[in-house]
Amino acid sequence: MMVMKKLAFVGLSLFAFGHLNPVHAALFDDKEARKKILEVEAKQQSNHDASMAAIAELKKSQAAMEKRIAAIEAIVQGGGLADMQNQIEVLKQEVANLKGDLEVASHNLDTTQQRQKDLYADTDTRLRKLEGGVPVAANPPLANAPAQPAAEEKDVKAFADADSLSKSAKHKEAFAAFDGFLKEYPNSKLTPDALYGMGYSQFALKNYKSSIATQQKVIDLHPESPKVPDAMFNMANSQIQLGQVTNAKKTLRALIEKFPNADVTPSAQKRLKALEAIK
Fold this sequence. Notes:
82% helix; 279 residues; 2 domains; mainly alpha; Serine Threonine Protein Phosphatase 5, Tetratricopeptide repeat
């Protein structure tokens, strides 16, 4: 009887032990599974947040791009690009015209100055013949004194030398020569021409402000000189180079109004038309 009870106790213990181990193992496996699930969910949430941030950034970039496209379309539809291109082409053409006009003006200046010198020389020769009755060369020099050219001949030669330097594009030397002439012969009849020549040399040397001041002297001090229209035109060109377009237009209009028949007036009219075409 005791043996049976012992066997029954052992069997019951084995039964209980066999049933407890699987339960404990199941509980352990469930915790690990939950932990894995939480880790996966956390990782998914992190990936989701990163994806949403990337999508938001893409939407922001898309909105900016759409805004730029809308602005470009507005410009294209409004003809803005075409207008800008047209203005650029107009400017290029006007620059080419300005260069051409400058060459024409320089040629006209050379021709005018040469005519003035020829006229002066011819008039001077005729006056001397009328006064002395014989050519100048027939008048003997003073005894024991070296032959000296008359004062007028000296200033004419000095001016011609300066003018020759200007025509040879030796603008620094020409400026110095014209400046020396004005100091040596302040009362010469060629003073307006020398002032203009000095202003032109300053323009060629890109001293535009100084050129304007010099040409203004021609206008203010010698208003009856035939060099005034040329001085005004040169002044307008200097103002253009300085970006003073409004002043240049004003100078050109005054030139055209006061000197409608001057040789330089047609060039002034073209220059004014070109400036007015630029918006």
